[in-house]
Every structure is written in C-alpha cells, then in structure tokens.
Design goal:
6 helices; alpha+beta; three-stranded antiparallel sheet; four-stranded antiparallel sheet; 35% helix
Length: 211
C-alpha cells in the first residue's frame, strides 16, 4: 500500500486547521521547470555543456575535417542532457512536496523533501514583500521579516531569495501567475494590519498583545 507522508494534515499544507475566522485565500506549488530554471540554474548548466561541445569540436577541427570533428561534441551534449534531467528531477520532487498557503492572517510554507517543515509568517511579522516576475508570468514573492527573526537558509532553500544568507528572506518561489498571488498577499496583509491590536494585562503585570 502506498504511504502518504502528509496524510495527517487536516488541511493540505497546514499542520492544523486554521483558527475560526481565518480563511484560505490561495494555495499553490512551484512549477517544476520554473524551479529548475530559477533555483537550480538549469539554463546555465545546459549552456555550459553546449559550450564544452563547441570547444571540443573547434579544437579537434584544427587537426581533422569539420565533419569528422563534429561527432566529438556529442558526448558533452549527452552528459549535459543527463545533468539537466537530474536537475529537473530534483526540482520536480521539491515542487511536489511543497505547498504554499496564503490566508487572511498569514503566509504558510510547507517545504522540504527529506526534512519537511512548515513555516508560518503572520502578516504582522512581515516588513515588506517584493515581486520578481519572469516574462512567462512565473515568478517569486519574497518576504522580509521584521525584527530579529532568524530563519535557516539551508533548511528553507530553495524557497528563499538567492544569496541573502545574512538574513534569510523566505519566498513563494517559481509560482505561476505570480503577480496575481502578490496582489492577493498585498490585499490580505493590508486588511490584516489595519485591524487594531488589543492589549491585555497578563498575571504578573506583563502586557500581551492579542492579534
């Protein structure tokens, strides 16, 4: 019998049911090809092996006819195709095990193929969000957190802004129709943040802010 590692989730992508009054506005996953292109440098790897093939043919054609040197570049193209297939396979697994969720109160990210974690980002803890979009409409929505919130770059990768290791910026990476998702996030965050906070006095004199 096949085993579903996420069968215990009451709602796909969330470790527990949303509290009363919190509604899910959008859920989605990265596109495997876009993730391989954006996070795993698929085009760069393919271009590298093409350049190796051209170099091999060019060097060999100095000592033999071009038509005889041409097949010498084929092994590099085959290796490049295998490498690209491996990268796409990794991206497919990462995309398949990822669920991004936007609710009226937060952004949740269930990520990780081997080590699965769920990251909750309340809108009240997000300083800003940036949209990075490609010509095909896919893109990423990147979040900068408030205060001293520290997140592990390695645990969240590739669902992060590349090379921002000093302060990790989580991201909804390589999603379709990224501009529409960014607008959903912006509208939900504006609505949530405009709601007043209610401060209550806890035992011992501590003040607790109830969102």
């Amino acid at each position: 019998m096949p085993h579903d590692d996420f069968a215990t989730e009451p709602v796909e992508g969330l470790p527990e049911k949303p509290p009363a009054g919190e509604m899910i506005l959008w859920q989605g996953k990265p596109l495997a090809f876009a993730l391989a292109r954006d996070a795993l440098s698929l085009y760069w790897v393919a271009g590298y092996f093409v350049l190796l093939a051209i170099w091999r043919v060019g060097v060999s054609s100095a000592d033999m006819p071009f038509t005889a040197a041409l097949p010498l570049g084929v092994p590099f193209l085959v290796l490049g195709a295998v490498a690209c297939l491996v990268l796409y396979g990794v991206a497919y697994v990462l995309a398949r095990t990822t669920v991004y969720t936007v609710t009226t109160a937060r952004v949740a990210m269930r990520v990780g193929a081997a080590l699965t974690v769920t990251l909750n980002l309340p809108f009240t803890r997000i300083a800003s969000a940036d949209l990075m979009v490609k010509s095909d409409g896919t893109g990423s929505v990147v979040f900068e957190t408030l205060g001293d919130v520290r997140l592990s770059y390695l645990v969240l990768w590739p669902h992060v802004r590349p090379w921002r290791m000093k302060k990790t910026q989580p991201a909804l990476r390589s999603i379709p129709d990224a501009a529409r998702v960014a607008q959903i996030v912006a509208d939900a965050a504006e609505t949530r943040i405009s709601q007043p906070e209610i401060s209550t006095r806890a035992p011992g004199g501590a003040t607790v802010a109830a969102e």
